[in-house]
Prior knowledge:
The structure holds 2 protein chains of 2 kinds. Chain A has 3 helices and no strands. By secondary structure, chain A is an all-alpha fold. By secondary structure, chain B is mainly alpha-helical. Chain B folds into 2 domains: 1-110, RNA polymerase sigma factor, region 2, helix turn helix motif (Rna Polymerase Sigma Factor, Chain: A); 112-188, Arc Repressor Mutant, subunit A, CATH 1.10.10. Chain B has 8 helices and no strands. Chain B has helices at 2-12, 16-38, 41-58, 68-99, 122-132, 137-147, 153-160, 164-187. Chain B is globular. The interface between A and B is large, with 32 and 45 residues.
Amino acid sequence: MDTNIEQKIDDTLSSLDMVKRAEISPYFKTRMKGMLTQIQPEPAFLSFKFTLAMAMIAIILTANTFLLYQRMNQNSTNKKSVHEISEISEMYHFNSTPVLDYDNQ
Amino acid sequence: MSDQIHFVALLKTGDSGAYDKLIEDYQHMVYNTVLGIVNHLHDAEDITQNVFIQIFKSIHDFKGDSKLSTWIYRIAITKSLEWERKKKSKRSINYFKNLIGISTESTELSAFYHPGVELQNKEMATILFKAIKKLPENQRLAFVLIKVEGLNYQEVGEIMNKSTKSIEGLVLRAKAQLKLILNDYFTE
């Protein structure tokens, strides 16, 4: 690399060595204060309310899912017991034609 | 740290005195950081305003896991990068408008003179800022925070969520890259 160019590169790279912090306009603070009075921050209780609402929704959904699951289980148990009853009734001929069938005599 | 907890608690209550102090203490820090990234005096002031509005709106989200200044630096960087992206897409639209002849707005970046640079270094610093713009984002942020804002590696690491070692690496790579960019510039 050309020493002249190398020197220029080094000088350019060190041109920010003594840089001072840039200062904003002295009117900025006044302007900013005026602006902030027009904007309302989100109050803490609102964000608390939001969290509470989310927690309630989660609880309701969980409870619903649990109840639905339980109901489905109950249905399958009912079906099972109906099936068992019909098996027993078939075994003991509960639903067979009565021995004394007066109508057909 | 307990001073910070007390101060943040005051900010969360919306105390106007606390906001006065916040602006007083951090306005130059935010402005200087933003200016180092966007390289535009007027826009840097607008972005600084947006940074304070953002602080005001989201102070309830500040958990105190980091220093308040670190959190403010992050907001300032995010807002500056957002502004750059918007500006870039606007420039691309203008470029196409110019191509089809429905606009004559300039798409060139104007030369930037940092007000904190000494007069004899002004020209060199302008060339350097132009070269910094060409660096990858992480290298650029690390370099600007160290060179322009005067932070140390550890502070930059906290802001960028990286280890001190990786910040050192980023700055080394940034310097090497800048040498190449400047070499091209001076040999043109």
